[in-house]
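Try it yourself: sequence plus 5'-deoxyadenosine, in.
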Amino acid sequence: MKKIDNTNEFEAKKQLDIIKELKERYDRDYKERGIKKTYHIETFGCQMNSRDSEKISGILKQIGYVETDTEDADFVLYNTCTVRENANNRVYGRLGYVGRLKKNRPDMLVALCGCMMQETTAVEKIKNSYPFVDIIFGTHNIFKLAELIKTRLDNDISGGKHSDRMVIDLWKDTDIIVESLPNDRKYPFKAGVNIIFGCNNFCSYCIVPYVRGRERSRNLEDIIDEIKVLANDGVKEIMLLGQNVNSYGKNLKPQISFAKLLQEVEKVEGIERIRFMTSHPKDLSQELIDVMGASKKICKHLHLPLQSGSTRLLNIMNRKYSKEDYLDLVSRIKKVVPDISLTTDIIVGFPGETEEDFMETIDVVEKVGFDSAFTFLYSKRTGTPAANMDNQVEESVAKERFDRLLNAIQVSSADAAGRDEHTIQDVLVEEVNSQNEELLTGRLSNNMLVHFQGDKSLIGNIIPVYLKESKGFYYIGNPVG
Ligand code: 5AD
Ligand code: SF4
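Structure, out:
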């Protein structure tokens, strides 16, 4: 069944050769200077970007760079987001700062990648206002990073104005997925695994389909092979990643459903927890609900973006479900997985949102009882249909609704919190508590945090913990046994 795709294998080999060549150059430099070159990555936005940054980090480490936690580094990369306007503004802020640093370190390389780079206007602005930037690439060609670095270094040898030496490589879309390149995982015990790239949904407010391209699923065998390797390396928790995981497999031959993929992941020995993100309500099948109900490994948590509770607005948003469909879906999920924790995304102030529309959103929040929600003020994204709608909501009205929505969410989170108080639950121990070094922090299957006393050696293990007290956003617990 494995798809033979020569382009991918050819690309992977070519990039690995360039990585090797750069490594030889960097090793020589290390011998001469006695210090290794450093890199720093700032990641904006979602988990897809975080995962991309791990891949970038893998390539840089393989070349010979060592990671540092400040932008005072030999190679600085901003992995950008553009889902809302303020994400773009933050990048311009960082560029101003790094431009000043670069004045004192002329050899420093500054690179930009990610969703914002897929927007022509943003790239034009960078070319004009931040000419010191060295490399710009997008969401479709991360695998080429080593080649782009090599081209940039070779441009230095040929001389010329700095802005002429800038390397820009942007692809509008792609159908290739390059496997088997280096990788640098942030945690040894949990890992994100891409299963599908891109989005075909074109929600009318959203820029993602324009900057991440059409949906492309990875082959089942590639995903399972990656997860087996991770399990062998001691990874216990897998997060399957995609803009819309429920579309997984639709473009594969033969087609395969996301629920079937989950069943295959479930069979991998050593993997104890399976999460996934994000689910579009219109595509969440009864098959998936039943697989979740029967599974011992799939976590009791679903992130199910609502966006709005008003059927009228959902239509204009092109979400393809109604308020009633959403509520019906939630009740079907709760029937099969009664202890499910539901979280969501909600946009306030979408063009034309009336008080009645907004109250429909509040109604859904009250009926569903979300554990938590990401709430966003609508942000106009040039190029999307909603940006041209002439009934944009006044900022003060949107802000006032936003505050009321936050209050409603707080009430629903407070109701959900403490549900497991005085029970014993499995906790994946993740780290030493950042506020109090005597405590460890871990997560329940439903994603809730638990703080408890214990030895650092427990990190990475799943252990039973008695949940002594609920503190709203987290529990205080006692390890059992
Ligand atoms: N304005 C505000 N929020 C947005 N989102 C996507 N596009 C916009 C926008 N233009 C939110 C949606 C999505 C989340 C990742 O970002 O709620 O689910
Ligand atoms: Fe954007 Fe809609 Fe695709 Fe999510 S499903 S990434 S909101 S277009």
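One thing you can check immediately is this: The chain has a mean pLDDT of 94.
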